[in-house]
Fold these 2 entries.
Entry 1:
Amino acid sequence: MHAYRSHTCADLTAANAGETIRLSGWVHRVRDHGGVLFVDLRDHYGMTQVLADSDSPAFAAMEKLRAETVIRVDGRVKPRDASLVNPKLPTGEIEVYATEIEVLGPADELPLPVFGDQDYPEETRLTYRFLDLRRESLHDNIMLRSKVVRSLRNRMWDEGFTEFQTPIITASSPEGARDFLVPSRLHPGKFYALPQAPQQFKQLIMVAGFDRYFQIAPCFRDEDPRADRSPTDFYQLDIEMSFIEQEDVFATVQPVIQGLFEEFGGGRPVDANWPRIPYAEALLKYGSDKPDLRNPIEMQVVSDHFRGSGFAIFAKLLEQDGTEVRAIPAPTGGSRKFADRMNAFAQKEGLPGMGYIFWRKADDGSTEAAGPIAKNIGPERTEAIRLQLGLGEGDAAFFLGGKPETFEAVAGRARNEIGRELGLTEENQFKFAWIVDFPMYEKTDDGKIDFSHNPFSMPQGGIEALNGDPLKVLGYQYDLACNGYELVSGAIRNHKPEIMFKAFELAGYPASEVEKRFGGMVKAFRYGAPPHGGCAAGIDRIVMLLADEQNIREVIMFPMNQRAEDLMMGAPSEPTNEQLRDLRLRVLPKE
């Protein structure tokens, strides 16, 4: 017999009754039933119930077992009584009568239990991640992640793509976040960078003539953490294709992502209709460039109904250039109680509140508008608003006004809150949308023009489009949104040096700077570059959605905490003086 096991803890069934077997695993829990001891023995594959009574030579050893001790068990397979069969376990028809137990790895008292799903402070969970990973839900998430990655690889090969690896130590590249820099020992005073994405390399792969590339790529960005984003590193399905247009990318990506969600979505419906929504329209209707389309609410501009009205706050606001008033319809939300709840939500978001109108049945049987705004603007205007929004008795509308960039994000969150509160959002399904026509440039807080998205994108209209107002230039850039999350981001690339120099010039980068920072790619484009484009899909975020988790750390095996610290391994750590001398670096004291 094998030194440690003849079977795993998921193998044994009623067909094995009477066999002498050997199992190894962790003591999940011990139960004492008055002279009979039961141990739930767990390994990577499953669970088997082991028992010993006072006649068993293993009884004395079993009495001393602690939870999470690693043991080897020899014993005999017995069928359970019909009344004791556990249909939830693959091994639930049998139990193992232990004849010998050997402790392979003793366990100290646990800092957090593995049995059960009790909530524990994240600091404890991350410090003892090796224990946390033994818990069933987290173990299942990590296994799901592995299966998702395998499925993505298979799907990409089936689509005619070839997997290549790109460098991890490279040069800095503007991807919208801070680089992690790596000092060079051989070149004192110079630094490598960990890649924020394989952007330049995958474009160079296209220039080299390989046509359809993919990679499960590690990416490194020094970012502030969020629930749906890792603060240090993440993995993405990286894709690039030659001789394609935007629609070719969409046609390639949809069957891969849709098939993945159908395979691992647990039976939740996957909507096959993926609309193309222009960026400006997404912000107007949903207040977000990653809208949750499970929520049917669409915001509308209602400025004309408030111009010159008796509602002075909005009337005066609309006298200023660039301002507008938007309405968030709230079907079935027509009560003062609900309006008060939404006002409280707005105040938590830092607003004084949200104006509202709700419609109810009047004494004469007609539909009347109620609320402070309704009293100020009168029945004609409120009726016009109701008709525009398609609302009726028992419904409501909420209003936000000002320059759109100042209230759009809050309006988007309010839309989501209203959809959840009123039960309008269709849970337990996946709805996707391509967000297209992103602006190439944006104005920074100090009034300068900078790239708003990927700087290597092709502007719509080519070089001629760059001769006008930069803020009106749209790029062949696109994101894929699902249930309120951005899953994919990509673009058709700018493969012509003259257009690239002009695009960077508008963002304040002279030609010399472009040559210095991206010289390899510019040089390559001078030797015959094909039209090309692609995208990248965030694997961590995809698995988070499939696992129905709210925090991305629940699907990453060894994540950092919110302060970008590895509590288990003690990173980041202070370098030794010898390391600093080798790198010719000095650490400045904290201010």
Entry 2:
Amino acid sequence: MKYLLLTPLCFCLTLTVLAQPFSKITDPANPIFSDTPETFYQGASWIDYDNDGLLDLFVVRKALYHNEGNGNFLKVINSGLITSAGLGNSWADYDNDGDIDCFISGGNNRGSSLFTNKGDGTFERNLEGPLADSLALRAWSCAWGDYDNDSYTDIILAAPYNFIAITDNNKLLHNKVNSTFERIDTSIICQEPGAYTVASWSDFDNDKDIDLFIGSGPVNGTLLPDYLYKNNLTETGIPSFDELTVAPLTEPRDGQQWNWIDFDNDSDLDGFVTNYTGFDVTDGYVNEFYRNDNGTFVKLTFSDVGSIVTDEHISLANIWEDFDNDGDLDCLVINDAGQSNVYYQNNWNSGSLVFSKVSSLPFLETDNPNFSGTAGDYDNDGDLDLFISSSGSAKGLYRNDQANGNRWINLKLVGTISNKSALNAKVLVKAVINGAAVWQMREVSAQSSFNGMNSLNVEFGFGNATVVDSIIIKWPSGIIDYYTGIAVNQFYTAVEQQDLTVGMNELQNEISATALEIYPNPASTFCRVRTVPSNTMQCTLNIYDQLGNRVLLLFDGTLSKGIHDFEWLTADVPAGLYTCRFISENSYSSIKILVVK
């Protein structure tokens, strides 16, 4: 049920199309430019793997590029990541230790692997349990998401049967509390072979659990329904899936990649899916767009939104961001088979839902296949830049050089009760744009492009607004944080249940001056909580349940430097996952505790 009201804008008969001033970076000293293009499908992602506040770039089968600042990148030679194989990638802090980790999906002779960020700028392959056999995990795509809401991100691997040496089904790897994984083959999402393409998670129905969307992509002149699954966690208390039967989302198509976005600023998620060849294996097939009308989905037509739903292309990625910072989401579609990429400008802020095609952009080349793309503000100037994956001249780095004066904010989210990367958190913001109060919404996703993802930071444009009136963050834990009167043109860090701080890198929760340990863990009747302050400090030590409710105050006072132990009688609480949080003026730490009976 919605509790936010949208103040509608007046409809304008005249649409103004503003070309985006993207500049292709052609400096031969920049390895992103000088590295040769790949000739087969590859994903890419913007991530800050070393927590320095600058977005780095990972390109499958090519390299990890470290952002040196001032527009310069360094190709990392000994990162520990596989750069000779793979197709897709997805990034999340799966072990909740404060740095982001990488999963690379692939088939044939290398399969799929998880790489743990060691915190020193390098990665180490995780060989525990099912992760040891990469060939048993062959897949086209991968996507992190916390489907059971236990604060640890899980991974889905989408496996197209009889392609790239895949002879089995999808794989669901459940992240256990100790950050090892178990393979769940009994789930419906892993039961049947199929033409699976890109997998993505979204709480599209706003019921506080994430659902799964996988394109069908037969790519043989036939159409099939996509593989869509509803999560029953909220309804039953058990994380299980049923096939989604909501019309018209399940109509047959040649599906590739789903995105769930609020394109019309009405505070619910609308669906967009790219299609490949359809009936004609040479010309392509139209992409499809579904407006969410308070839980009822309407398939949009040309009269509703324009040629974004009638252009026939062989499409792969769809990338949704507010590239011109005017307060609505624009869309870039990446097209294969020598067809031009297409940029669709959203005109909602001008009073129309009809998108306009913008031409004369430097990444709209047509000479060779294009594969994917990723968006992120790599130069920290408040607008979103692009990397395009292509085998031709479109491949490269594109800096957004807009100078329209539109305001913006950029939010880095850090979960504490929720998963650290805040995957599938929803952020709503309100500002007065052109004299009208406008709500916008974003959902954090680790698979928001074709076999890759945009930056996990949440970016909003505000046109001529001078202040952000309200920010509401709905965390996966169920906790809701509210902020008001926020200055524009700033980077912020939002830590669950804490105040906003200015800057992208102000709080790294587990990198603190205070050690925090729990033993035994899991615990049945009791556990000891040990904290080791580096100096004398005023502090509190609390225990919270999964919903963020405080169940126990362990300590509130002054601790001296050194070791301090506190006992918690876990026999007094139900089984489940709890969080112990240490807070002082200059230090913050948290740790999970599993109580078993």
